């Protein structure tokens, strides 16, 4: 979720109106008509001052949550906090709205074990937790998944000229880790900071990769929580990335803005590049894509089967093993790509993880050498 | 890596020994001929096998879907480009085969002259027209050349959705084919009994070969200069290339449908190839038409009710089409289109095309992956939407409206163009009769927006459009039609 577009150049391209230009006085804020307008909203082109924009942003998130009945009163909400702009804004907005919604918040941060990146991000999360006075829980891959940090996974899947598919592993394992962390703190709902740009990239990516199952599942505002999994939602889903950055700017939020070390390898990069081009040609492209994604109609055969429970860990699963267990199985057996790809041959072969595997993970606190 | 489900083979030990470059390869199908073209990911075909493969694909698509009944009149939409020329050629060849394998419908060709919209000079248009007529006369089907300016003369009924004819069941198709064959047999027996009789039998339900004197749409009546002027002003008033292309497509479709209805054609065939459809699918996604992908890119498109649009070339990639046309000398005419020589970032269509073709270089299965995903789309509202009576249809594209009610969670985020249209300040209307002339047809349909009505006619039009068309409308200079004094 950490975007690569937070470089200085991007900040300069934000639609902030110039501070003082004697030739052209800045317009009045269209809402309060008192303050000088500080920006023009990318979506509607209205000129607003900072305070009114933040108020409008919060009102829209509130509308999304209320109209979609996402977070009922009394919910204990685990916020997936990565230290990046999206989860920072999400946590801040939910804190502002918490009294009105009647919810209580807990921060859950996931430590994937990516050296040189995650430690700095976690420092930012700790600062935020201290400032907001919200309880913070950190769950680490190394603890949950038998010592498999992302760096270890990357080493295990490297080689043979093929891509490392790090993001495949990380995404699945992170969702599992988030679920575990949420249970630890006794949460009833999980929220993540996905914004409209993320949803648009996802639908583009799923079409380009031919992932009909994900297309059928996706769209909509989150999952209601089947089979014992906690309900998840994305309150920022209809806010475009630019507006999230603007909100963070006007509220002076402190967040961590570097991209993950493995991000350049991800296929999502292509979708992101395409999205930026589309946005330049037509500013409403992001919302148009979200609209399209919500209304895709796929054949019943393309949808994934009704979920059951994983035979190993009991979590939600479409097959005998949930994806996380399947991936870990592959890693532990020294065949990391076992669960990636069609058919997943060999998955159902009997065999507990053998000791003494050459690819076995190192000690959890080993620092990877790059 | 990109394709989900892509099979990663076991490590290198199981890889087949690499093919020696430079050594003589044989055609993968017949194992004898010298290959001339490589299809898909490394299948080399010789000339004859390629021809058989190509023709087989065309017939298989038609046969699999069983939508075209024997003796039906089918209009072929020919733009002069390679894909539609190839389609016309396939139909021509298919009709001239031996009786068992012969195609059994009655074709006609329509060609739309879009020169005015693309800004061509009258001389260039005349030249292109002459080339086209040459080819049309060689092909020999009844042909209709229609200038895009005639869209101004379309009656408002063109935007009304006709009642949908019920789709024939399997049994109905088989019964139709059987009765047709019997008919043929009877006609053949009445003749001399050898091959000329088949030709005679064909002529019983065929067309006169030269259509010129009987063709009411004869292009000897060129569009008037005023109409050309009006059309080019309409297109100039559109701000973005994306909206221009969408407008052109909408006008072209309506014109073709009108020609089909006037002359009794019940099917229209368009030459969209696999590559073009994959690009079209991604473009429609980006334009907000996710609800209608199955209609936009599927084999058949029945949203217009009485006339069904069919895409028989949808399994042929552009590469195959190009090679076929080159190897077997299929004639085609190049006419500049709206986006010829436009920079890559000029419109969503261009962007998507460039992106897909670039990605195809890197991941050779991109186009086929997107195409296969498009086959899994169905023509139905998404689960959870009311499965009640069919709702209102979009004025321009004839699809069921996909706008949520105002109190749904997503209505706020994804439907702001509606708010935007209402907050734009009205601009003074310059004299632009073309906009109103073009839109006047539309306004005439939307329940009679009388000139004397004080209500904003533009808002009335907009609320009858689907999401994608609303976003396009923003780019059209429609605020000029907001003046109630403009005649509807």
UniProtKB/TrEMBL annotation, chain A:
Keyword Cell membrane appears in the UniProt entry: no
Domain of life: Eukaryota
CDD domains noted in UniProt: CTU1-like (cd01713)
Subcellular location as annotated: Cytoplasm
Residue ranges constituting the tRNA(Ile)-lysidine/2-thiocytidine synthase N-terminal domain according to the UniProt record: 77-272
Keywords, comma-separated and alphabetical: ATP-binding, Cytoplasm, Nucleotide-binding, RNA-binding, Transferase, tRNA processing, tRNA-binding
Principal subcellular localization: cytoplasm
Entries under Pfam families matching the protein: ATP_bind_3, zn-ribbon_14
Biased composition (Basic and acidic residues): 345-362
Region (Disordered): 342-370
Subunit structure: Component of a complex at least composed of URM1, CTU2/NCS2 and CTU1/ATPBD3. May form a heterodimer with CTU2/NCS2.
Protein name: Cytoplasmic tRNA 2-thiolation protein 1
Species, as recorded: Equus caballus (Horse)
Chain's gene name: LOC111775260
UniProtKB/TrEMBL annotation, chain B:
Main location as per UniProt: cytoplasm
InterPro entries: CTU2, Rossmann-like_a/b/a_fold
Listed GO biological process terms: protein urmylation; tRNA thio-modification; tRNA wobble uridine modification
Protein's UniProt name: Cytoplasmic tRNA 2-thiolation protein 2
A cellular component annotation (GO) from this entry: cytoplasm
Superkingdom to which the source organism belongs: Eukaryota
Its job: Plays a central role in 2-thiolation of mcm(5)S(2)U at tRNA wobble positions of tRNA(Lys), tRNA(Glu) and tRNA(Gln). May act by forming a heterodimer with CTU1/ATPBD3 that ligates sulfur from thiocarboxylated URM1 onto the uridine of tRNAs at wobble position.
MF-aspect GO terms: nucleotidyltransferase activity; tRNA binding
Pfam families recorded: CTU2
Assembly and oligomerization: Component of a complex at least composed of URM1, CTU2/NCS2 and CTU1/ATPBD3.
Keywords: Cytoplasm, tRNA processing
Gene behind this protein: CTU2
Region (Disordered): 1-24
Biological classification of the source: Eukaryota, Metazoa, Chordata, Craniata, Vertebrata
The species this protein was found in: Equus caballus (Horse)
Annotated pathway: tRNA modification; 5-methoxycarbonylmethyl-2-thiouridine-tRNA biosynthesis
Location in the cell: Cytoplasm
Record-stated family: Belongs to the CTU2/NCS2 family.
């Amino acid at each position: 979720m950490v975007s690569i577009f937070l470089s200085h150049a991007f900040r300069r391209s934000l639609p902030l109106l110039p501070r003082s230009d004697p030739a052209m006085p800045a317009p009045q804020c269209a809402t309060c008509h008192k303050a000088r307008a500080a920006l023009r909203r990318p979506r509607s082109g209205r000129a607003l001052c900072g305070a009114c924009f933040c108020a409008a942003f919060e009102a829209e998130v509130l509308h999304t949550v209320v109209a979609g009945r996402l977070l009922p009163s009394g919910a204990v909400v685990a916020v997936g906090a990565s230290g990046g702009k999206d989860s920072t804004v999400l946590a801040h907005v939910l804190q502002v709205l918490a009294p009105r919604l009647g919810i209580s918040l807990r921060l859950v941060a996931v430590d994937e074990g990516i050296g040189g990146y995650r430690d700095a991000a976690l420092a930012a999360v700790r600062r935020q937790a201290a400032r907001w006075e919200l309880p913070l829980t950190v769950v680490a891959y190394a603890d949950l998944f038998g010592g498999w940090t992302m760096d270890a996974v990357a080493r295990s899947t490297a080689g043979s000229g093929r891509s490392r598919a790090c993001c495949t592993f990380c995404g699945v394992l992170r969702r599992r880790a988030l679920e575990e962390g949420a249970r630890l703190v006794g949460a009833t709902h999980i929220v993540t900071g996905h914004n409209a740009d993320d949803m648009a990239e996802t639908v583009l990516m799923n079409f380009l990769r031919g992932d009909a199952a994900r297309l059928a599942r996706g769209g909509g505002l989150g999952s209601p929580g089947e089979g014992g999994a906690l309900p998840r939602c994305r309150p920022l889903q209809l806010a475009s990335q630019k507006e999230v950055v603007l909100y963070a700017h006007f509220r002076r939020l402190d967040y961590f803005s570097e991209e993950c070390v493995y991000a350049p390898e991800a296929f999502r990069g292509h979708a992101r590049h395409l999205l930026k081009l589309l946005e330049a040609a037509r500013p409403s492209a992001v919302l148009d894509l979200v609209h399209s994604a919500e209304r895709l109609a796929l054949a019943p055969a393309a949808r994934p089967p009704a979920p059951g429970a994983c035979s190993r860990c009991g979590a939600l699963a479409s097959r005998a093993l949930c994806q996380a267990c399947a991936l870990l199985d592959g890693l532990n057996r020294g065949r990391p790509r076992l669960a990636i790809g069609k058919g997943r041959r060999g998955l159902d072969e009997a065999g507990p993880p053998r000791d003494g595997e050459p690819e076995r993970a190192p000690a959890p606190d080993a620092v990877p050498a790059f | 890596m990109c394709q989900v489900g892509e099979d990663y083979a076991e490590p290198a030990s199981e890889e087949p020994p690499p093919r020696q470059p430079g050594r003589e390869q044989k055609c993968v199908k017949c194992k004898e001929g010298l290959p001339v073209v490589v299809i898909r990911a490394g299948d080399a075909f010789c000339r004859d096998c390629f021809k058989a493969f190509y023709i087989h694909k065309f017939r298989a698509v038609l046969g699999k879907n069983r939508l075209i009944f024997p003796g039906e009149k089918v209009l072929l939409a020919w733009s002069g480009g390679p894909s539609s020329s190839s389609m016309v050629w396939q139909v021509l060849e298919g009709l001239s085969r031996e009786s068992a394998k012969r195609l059994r419908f009655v074709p006609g060709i329509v060609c739309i002259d879009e020169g005015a919209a693309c800004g061509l000079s009258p001389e260039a248009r005349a030249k292109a027209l002459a080339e086209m007529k040459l080819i049309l006369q060689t092909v020999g089907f009844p042909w209709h050349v229609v200038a895009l300016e005639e869209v101004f003369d379309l009656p408002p009924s063109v935007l009304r959705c006709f009642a949908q004819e019920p789709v024939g069941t399997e049994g109905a198709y088989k019964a139709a084919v059987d009765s047709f064959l019997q008919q043929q047999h009877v006609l053949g027996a009445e003749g001399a009994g050898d091959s000329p009789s088949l030709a005679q039998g064909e002529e019983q339900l065929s067309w006169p070969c030269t259509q010129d004197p009987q063709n009411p749409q004869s292009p000897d009546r060129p569009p008037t200069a005023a109409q050309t002027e009006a059309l080019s002003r309409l297109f100039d008033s559109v701000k973005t290339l994306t909206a221009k292309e969408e407008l052109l497509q909408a006008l072209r479709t309506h014109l073709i449908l009108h020609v089909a209805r006037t002359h009794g054609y019940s099917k229209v065939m368009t030459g969209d190839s696999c590559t073009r459809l994959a690009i079209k699918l991604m473009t429609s996604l980006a334009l907000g038409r996710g609800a209608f992908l199955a209609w936009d890119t599927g084999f058949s498109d029945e949203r217009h009710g009485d006339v069904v649009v069919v895409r028989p070339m949808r399994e042929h990639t552009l590469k195959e089409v190009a090679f076929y046309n080159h190897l077997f000398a299929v004639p085609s005419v190049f006419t500049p289109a709206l986006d010829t020589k436009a920079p890559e970032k000029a419109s969503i269509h261009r962007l998507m095309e460039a992106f897909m073709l670039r990605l195809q270089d890197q991941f050779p299965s991109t186009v086929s992956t997107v195409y296969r995903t498009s086959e899994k789309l169905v023509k139905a509202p998404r689960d959870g939407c009311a499965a009640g009576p069919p709702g209102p249809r979009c004025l321009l594209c004839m699809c069921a409206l996909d706008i949520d009610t105002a109190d749904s969670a997503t209505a706020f985020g994804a439907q702001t163009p509606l708010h935007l249209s209402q907050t734009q300040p009205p601009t003074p209307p310059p004299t632009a009769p073309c906009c109103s002339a073009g839109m006047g047809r539309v306004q005439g349909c939307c329940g009679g927006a009388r000139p004397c009505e004080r209500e904003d006619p533009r808002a009335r039009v907009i609320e009858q459009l689907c999401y994608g068309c609303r976003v396009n409308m923003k780019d059209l200079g429609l605020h000029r039609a907001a003046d109630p004094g403009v005649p509807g």
